[in-house]
Amino acid sequence: MADEGETAARAGWVLPARLALGLAQGAALYFLYHAPEAGSWPATVPWLYAPLLTVALYVPLMASQAMGAMRTRTLAAWSLAATAALAWLGFYDRMRATPLSEMFSTQPFLPAFSTLFLGAVGIFVAQALIAAGDAARRPIARYDAYFDAAWKQGLQLALAAVFVGAFWLVLWLGADLFELIRLDFLQQLIRHDWFWIPATTLAAAAAIELTDVRARLVSGIRGVVLTLMGWLLAVMTLLAAGFLVTLVFTGLEPLWATRRAAAGLLWASAALVILINAAYQNGEQERPFLLRLSGAIAAFALTPLALLAAYALWLRVGQYGWSVARLATLYCTIVAAAYAAGYGISAALGFARRGREPLLERTNILVSVLVLAILGSLFTRFTDPEKLAVDDQVGRLRDGRIRADDFDFYYLGREGGRYGLRALEKLSKAHGTGDAAIMTRQRAQAVLDQNRAPVPPGPADLHVSLDVYPRGKALPESFIRNDWRGLTQGIAAPACLTMAGQDKCAAILVDLDGDGIDEVIVASGDESSWWGTIMKADAKGHWAPVATLPAEHCAGDLTALEQGTFAVAPPVTPFQALRVGHHAIRMQVPDPDKIDCSP
Q1: pLDDT level of residue 265 (50, 70, 90 thresholds)
Q2: DSSP letters along 361-378, please?
């Protein structure tokens, strides 16, 4: 009775709480979206920005979903735990990034896509387990509770994505209607970041609320989706069985020749697992004989598929050692083997029978916990795939399993992260006087030199590397003191602004947008080939690239800019065109085939 009273009390505040959370998420993402453009905190601290972004992306959405499925105290504890876990993922991601990747990435403050993806998978699995346990009021719930929680979450996210897409389609259609009568207020509104970011998160929150209060509708959609997917099991089982039988006659050589055998086998295993569960559902539905037979055959097929994937990986590792990609394949193979073992034993004990299969259900729960354990291990310094791969590759070199002239030193700097750079530093100081030792030191040092973060220029360097035009003018002090590293709007700052000791650039001061304040055109190159980048300061004096003058120009264009023999093409529209003689230089990235230098 207490639980029922709590549920009834919560019903009144869930809707406003979800909408408020959606608006808060939109505000947080808007702040984080604009920080890099302004060159302000926290974008200037990648190891702080990445955790904040990861948390802002997932925690509000996760909490909004959980509001309808968890008690308040469970929701609070889970939200804190998820926030801590996601923050650690973002922090660790940037902590292991190399100085080179931070320097040359246009967005060094962003976590890697793999981190965001793995974080989403981990949060989804963990929330399904916790929601089911909370609903059952015990640590381990019945299988149907896990089934309902996982599929409800998945369908809510899918339907929310569809709703958000439809929401924006309606807005754009409405804007187009008003545009027909020459009213563009709605079109201008939806293009503002302060509108479209919170509007999107608010629409997602509303979609979660609508799917939550229409639980029967979601349950009906789930039944239809699973029924359709269940019948695909027969097709996939036939294909998998046919593949395995064909291998008996063709042998394994054609499979190994593809050089992607493990990946293909694991994808096939994943499809079988998903379709087996779609046909089984929560075990209470009556399954036709064809689906029960297909499920049994598919369960047996998982074992040879997993073994073949493991053998393909073993052959590859024997040839080339471990890499991050091969370790990822290993983890997927472990998960596939766990499913194969559980499903195979369940099938041997009577998978095709009509009733429930407790072993299959336990396998799904245990593998979910295994997946969470594997995901957690990826973000510790002791079991980090980058570290394990680097240690193995260096071990192969030191043990003589690979010669120094065949060793890929660039792999350590390219994909080894900070662990790879540390290994290169040790190799560059390795003892020995033989040819192999000398080659190891030289090649390791060469890669280190390429991976070392370039020294950013100081004010004195910029005064040397920039020729200012018109002669007699001086660059604003805020321009000289500006930190150009990683500050882009899809446009990279020229190397003469980000690295000391680079070739000279021309800096042309001119008011391009008619606001009475000079912008700066930084031209890299010479008259034969040059590229212009337009820099503009915001109200706070932070400079950033805003437009370009692309590399395809007419003869004399650069000289005209340096000598001031050009004009801003009327009417004065921000970053439209410059007039040089009888032709225009467009302030954008044009199609080279459309450049017109004729009068």
Answers
A1: very high
A2: HHHHHHHHHHHHHHHHHT
